Automatic annotation (TrEMBL):
GO terms for biological process: cristae formation. Coiled coil: none annotated. It is a single-pass membrane protein. The gene is CUNH19orf70. PANTHER family: MICOS COMPLEX SUBUNIT MIC13. This is MICOS complex subunit MIC13. Pfam families: QIL1 (PF15884). It is found in: Mitochondrion inner membrane. Keywords: Membrane, Mitochondrion, Mitochondrion inner membrane, Transmembrane, Transmembrane helix. Belongs to the MICOS complex subunit Mic13 family. It comes from Hipposideros armiger. Component of the mitochondrial contact site and cristae organizing system (MICOS) complex. Component of the MICOS complex, a large protein complex of the mitochondrial inner membrane that plays crucial roles in the maintenance of crista junctions, inner membrane architecture, and formation of contact sites to the outer membrane. One of its GO terms (cellular component) is MICOS complex.
Length: 131
């Protein structure tokens, strides 16, 4: 007796699985929601608005996660241990990000002149070594 082997996402004749369109629909909906959220919150706009959105998320997400975990515990009867609070850092990523971008851009702006300078120095060095 021969075993039937099914391809992933289909049947023995190679037909597509009926759940394939729903997977695509779910993934497309999630991706569309993320794009809408980024656009609506203006996360790719000015850094002040992005920083404000990050602070808002830091305030809203932990209580929401706690409420969701409590809901799951009530519905399933599971007991989820309480996690320790995340440490607070007095570190502004916005300042570091901006200084990093400034350094990279300044390095890229002087790269052509530095390349010419180093090339010239290299040729002088080779001329001295050959003599």
């Amino acid at each position: 007796m021969e075993k039937l082997r099914f391809k992933r996402g289909g049947d023995s004749r190679g037909r597509a699985s009926p759940c394939l369109p729903s997977r695509f629909l779910i993934k497309g909906t999630v991706a569309g929601g993320v794009v809408y959220l980024v656009y609506d919150q203006e996360l790719l706009g000015p850094s002040d608005k992005s920083h404000a959105a990050l602070q808002k998320a830091e305030e809203v997400v932990p209580p929401a996660m706690y409420q969701f975990s409590q809901y799951v515990c009530e519905q399933t009867g599971l007991k989820i241990p309480q996690l320790p609070a995340p440490p607070k850092f007095n570190f502004h990523i916005r300042d570091s990000w901006n200084s990093g971008i400034i350094m990279v851009m300044s390095a890229l702006s002087v790269a052509p002149s530095k390349a010419c300078e180093y090339t010239k120095d290299g040729w002088e060095y080779l001329k001295e070594r050959i003599k």
